[in-house]
Amino acid sequence: MATHNDFGKKAEDLAVEFLQKNGYKILARNFRFQKAEIDIIAEKDNLIIVVEVKARSTDAFILPQEAVNKTKIKLIVSATDHYLEEFNKNQEVRFDIISVLPDEKGNLTIEHIENAFEAFDAN
C-alpha cells in the first residue's frame, strides 16, 4: 500500500477513536455507493453523523477540509441517501469533517468540524 494510503488509513482510525471517545457509535466505515465513499457513519443523540476524514501531511497549500468541494459533497449526500434507505434509517443527518494534520512536533492533531456542509449549496 502506498504511504499516502497508510496515512489516510491511520487518519481514519484516529477519527474513529476520537468519535468513540466522544460518545459516538460507529455504524459503518468506508460505505460505498456508486462512485461515492463515506469514510465514517456514526450515531449520536439520535442523529446520523456522516463524517468525511481529510488528512494532509502539511497545510502549506490547502487545509484538509478545503479539499471537500461541491462535487465531493454531492457524492457524499447521494451515498448517504442510499445508506438511509438501505438500512431503513429515518433520523436527521449531520455532515461533519474531521481534519487530521501533524503539529510542529509531528504529532497528529484532530479538528472536528460539525455541520461542515451547511455553508455549501450542494445544488
TL;DR of this structure?
The chain has 123 residues and is of the alpha+beta class.
Structural summary, described in words:
- Helix content is 29%, strand content 36%.
- With 123 residues, it is of the alpha+beta class.
- It has a 5-stranded mixed beta sheet with strand order 1-2-3-4-5.
- The chain has a single domain (3-113), classed as 3-Layer(aba) Sandwich (Trna Endonuclease, Chain: A, domain 1), CATH 3.40.1350.10.
- The chain contains 2 helices and 5 strands.
- Helix 2 (70-86) links the parallel strand 3 and strand 4 (92-102).
List the helices and strands and how they pair.
Layout: H1 3-21, E1 25-33, E2 36-44, E3 47-55, H2 70-86, E4 92-102, E5 108-113
Parallel strand pairs: 3-4
Antiparallel strand pairs: 1-2, 2-3, 4-5
Listing every helix as H and every strand as E from the N terminus to the C terminus, the arrangement reads: HEEEHEE
Low-pLDDT regions: none
Rough shape? Answer: globular
Q: Tell how many strands the DSSP assignment holds.
A: 5
> In what range is the share of β-strand residues?
35-45%
The number of distinct helices, counting runs of at least 4 residues, comes to 2
The total tally of domains equals 1
Q: Name the structural class.
A: alpha+beta
Reported by name, the CATH topology is Trna Endonuclease, Chain: A, domain 1
Radius of gyration: 14 Å
Q: Approximately how much helix is present in the residues?
A: 25-40%
CATH architecture: 3-Layer(aba) Sandwich
The biggest sheet, with number of strands, parallel, antiparallel or mixed sense and barrel status, is: 5 strands, mixed
How far apart the termini lie comes to 36 Å
CATH hierarchy, class: Alpha Beta
Spatial order of the strands forming the largest sheet = 1-2-3-4-5
